[in-house]
From TrEMBL:
One term of GO molecular function: oxidoreductase activity
Species this protein is from: Mycobacterium fragae
Keyword Methyltransferase assigned: no
Keyword tags: Flavoprotein, FMN, Oxidoreductase
Protein name: Nitroreductase
Domain Nitroreductase: 10-184
Length: 234
């Protein structure tokens, strides 16, 4: 798969089929993940793959409880992403959040059908600098295999219980960074269209200075010569 196709079409997939992911596919995904850059190549990461139906059922119950806590915060205006980003359309933001909630509800209601959970742990993570490249490599490698997924942090609300269920040696300093649900998607891959263009979210040398070029439409797939899709600005 072309690297730009993977970058442009990898998106969070919450509607997943129950079909199992073969072990050799899982191995290729994780083998790509451990090639990710990390501070001083210390590789302070550990991945726990969960495909035991009983464990998935336990985590499904925790996931639904954790989402209820998060949406309680959201409804009171204290949760993450409550307000739109500066300069963005409030109506579009509200519609996006409505869609995400519906998609998340599907995942919560069908959690027991997810064929694979992947828990990611790290030590001295420095705000995610060491582990998030590996997580993104997981999602890109999964895309190349036709596997979709979503990263979620909500189970941090029940971190002690997660550690207990998985037997995490917390005394060594391991902390959960995220959980990924992985499976073959029911939906289709595609270029994300609802993105603010480069020139609206980028600048050069100073916050208020123009980036120097406008990108009126996605540059992948290419429309003839790539440069023809760019327009220089002052």
């Amino acid at each position: 798969m072309d690297i730009y196709e993977a970058l442009y079409t990898t998106r969070m997939m919450r509607r997943l089929r129950p079909d199992p992911i073969p072990l050799d596919t899982q191995a290729r995904i994780l083998d790509a993940a451990v090639r990710a850059p990390n501070g001083a190549n210390t590789q302070r990461w550990h991945f726990v793959a969960v495909d035991d139906p009983e464990l998935i059922r336990e985590f499904g119950q925790l996931f639904r409880q954790a989402r209820a806590l998060e949406y309680e915060k959201f409804s009171t205006g204290t949760g993450p992403m409550v307000a739109p980003a500066p300069g963005s359309d409030p109506a579009a933001h509200a519609e996006t959040m409505r869609w995400i909630k519906g998609s998340g509800n599907y995942l919560a209601d069908h959690f027991e059908e997810v064929p694979l959970l992947l828990f990611v742990f790290a030590i001295d993570d420095l705000g995610g600098a060491n582990i998030y490249p590996a997580i993104w490599s997981i999602l890109l490698a999964a895309r190349a295999e036709g596997v979709g997924g979503v990263m979620t942090l909500v189970l941090r609300n029940f971190e002690d219980r997660v550690n207990e269920l998985l037997g995490v040696p917390v005394e060594e300093g391991w902390k959960m960074s995220a959980m990924l649900t992985l499976g073959y998607p029911r939906g289709k891959w595609g270029v994300a269209a609802n993105r603010r263009p480069v020139q609206e979210v980028s600048s050069r040398n100073h916050w208020d200075s123009p980036f120097g070029v406008e990108v009126p439409q996605p540059l992948w797939p290419p429309h003839g010569e790539m440069t023809s899709d760019l327009a220089a600005t002052g």
